[in-house]
Design goal:
By secondary structure, the protein is mainly β. The protein has one domain: Porin, CATH 2.40.160. It has 1 helix and 12 strands. Strands 3-4-5-6-7-8-9-10-11-12 form a 10-stranded antiparallel beta barrel. Strands 1-2 form a two-stranded antiparallel ribbon. Strand 3 and strand 4 form a beta hairpin.
Length: 190
């Protein structure tokens, strides 16, 4: 169950790597996604809501909420909120560092676990061929009861309109893998 808590929350964290819009990197958007993955031999799926808001040239705030249901009638609810720093490294390449508070609630037949802690994310983001964004990074999370864990994430987004993108994010944690298919609305590009 510890893996379900950590994987559920890291999937959401991994999905939170920011988007690239038509001309510039955007840090003001909302996304809804479908999560599918495996944790500890249990299959699960659910929905993820994520949003980020540009606060200054290199600073953004973000928050997310997700619900996942795993085999065996186990539900994982995850909330995260924090601040991110986005630093340009070169033309169309950003380094992103994020720190967030996380809260996880896991319920199943005969048990309920509430946990919280913090998470760190370090990632790179780049644009290729105009409409495509690639991202990848490292996630670290430390929960009071669930302990600490590290994962890697990779993502791709295709902007089929100036302010709309379809994306796929993959997260690898130990032997567990999860995927998020999402639709993003970029408010900075209206």
């Amino acid at each position: 169950m510890r893996k379900a808590i950590i994987l559920g929350s890291l999937v959401t964290l991994g999905a939170s790597v920011p988007a690239i819009a038509a001309d510039d990197f955007s840090y003001t958007y909302a996304e809804v996604g479908y999560i599918n993955g495996e944790s500890g031999g249990r299959d699960g799926d659910g929905v993820n809501l994520f949003g980020t808001l540009r606060l200054a040239d290199m600073l953004h705030g973000f928050a997310s909420y997700s619900e996942q249901e795993f085999d065996g009638n186990v539900d994982v609810d995850f909330f995260q909120a924090g601040l991110g720093l986005n630093l340009p490294l070169a033309s169309q390449i950003d380094f992103i560092g994020r720190l967030s508070f996380v809260s996880v609630d896991v319920t199943g037949p005969g048990f309920s676990v509430d946990d919280n802690g913090y998470a760190l994310n370090f990632s790179l983001r780049t644009r290729v061929a105009g409409e495509f964004e690639l991202s990848g990074g490292l996630n670290y999370q430390d929960l009071d009861q669930g302990g600490e864990d590290t994962s890697i994430n990779a993502g791709v987004r295709y902007y089929f309109r100036r302010n709309l993108a379809l994306g796929l994010d993959l997260l690898k944690n130990d032997n567990d893998t999860s995927a998020i298919l999402g639709l993003r609305v970029d408010f900075a590009q209206y």
